[in-house]
Amino acid sequence: MNRQALNDYLNGKPDTTAVRPFGPDVQVFKVRGKMFALVPDEEPLRVSLKADPTEVPFLREKYTAVEPGYHLNKKHWNTVTLDGTIPPDELRYMIDMSFRLVVRHNLKKADREEVLSQLVDSIQNNQQDGQP
Fold this sequence. Notes:
The chain is an alpha+beta fold. It has helices spanning 3-11, 56-62, 88-106, 109-128, and strands at residues 16-19, 26-31, 34-40, 46-50, 66-68, 77-81. It has a 6-stranded antiparallel sheet.
């Protein structure tokens, strides 16, 4: 996955905004104001994603490209180098998991329900269009 494909996938999540609160060199993707992905502009291409703490050790052991979150809570965040060693479906799973964890645990109930409803609609529309 290249930078444009990564940005497109992240921006495709419901109610996602991309901002640069840490300066011009780091793009942060938020859902309703809560961060679910962080992408530095530097090379190599990397993305920091929230992860289920029970999956964190497994992902870091399975993929050398998955490391503890850089400048983030290492229990809950991974930094993933997009060097081609992680299958695209697995990377999309990690992104989806980060988004869902933030929606589930960091949004107010009304916001959570609205975003989840939009997510379900998006999934159904993609299935109708023949997309995975």
